[in-house]
Amino acid sequence: MAGFQSQRRGGRLIRRLAELVVGVGLLWIAGMVRYADSIPLAVEEPGRQTDSIVVLTGGSGRLEEGLNLLQQNMAERLFISGVYQGVDVKTLFRLFQHNPQELEARIGIGTAVNTTGNATETALWIKAEGYKSMRLVTASYHMPRSLLEFHHAMPGIDIIAHPVFPEHVKVERWWAWPGTMGLIAREYNKFMFAWLRQAWEKLTAGKVTG
Questions:
Q1: What is the H or E stretch that residue 162 is in?
Q2: How far apart are the first and last CA of the chain?
Q3: Quick check: is 194 in a domain?
């Protein structure tokens, strides 16, 4: 009798664990779909000038777009965050065939290795320059997480999202393309880790000040 009751309790525990796993999985899927829906499909306010342009390196088309925007005088200066250490502005110009005499003095470089670092070093640069607005250039699928980190690092700054659209990322029908679906899933996981980190920082900061 005792063995039968133990088996029943074990069965109930397994069912509850299975229900928990299914529930968490469904919540994760719903969150990823919502994240995918938040990926921009167009540039915000393409004709609006800002104090600065910020490019996050790491994907095709980002730096070229930032340099083109600077040449069009869409901002006073350009900050390129995430450049390999030892790479200078002249090297970037050689790579992308722009005129260093015209633009070099208007470009700053940072060497962050991740999106949190991008936001931190950009916040320091923005504060040093006294700027109040920026146009943020990164890949469309990377934009929601970038905005989360940048708004957290500099809440008083007006940020205009300026996504670029890599050809290999099929955002509009992401579920039909396994490569894009996997990329968005990874980005969503990183987004959630960033959100949880920020929530924890706010919670612990409130306990300290309280």
A1: strand 158-164
A2: 55
A3: no
pLDDT in tens, 70-118: 989 999 999 999 886 655 666 666 665 656 567 788 999 999 999 999 9
Number of structural domains in the chain: 1
> Does residue 111 belong to any structural domain of this protein?
yes
**Distance of alpha carbon 60 from alpha carbon 77, whole angstroms:** 21
C-alpha closest to that of 165 among 35, 39, 31 = 39
Q: List 139's β-bridge partners, or say none.
A: 164
Question: 162, 69 in Cβ contact below 8 A?
Answer: yes
CA distance 38 to 140: 10
26-83 pLDDT, tens per residue?
A: 888 898 999 999 999 999 899 999 999 999 988 778 888 998 899 899 999 999 998 8
Alpha helices in 38-170 (DSSP H): 62-71, 89-96, 100-103, 115-129, 143-153
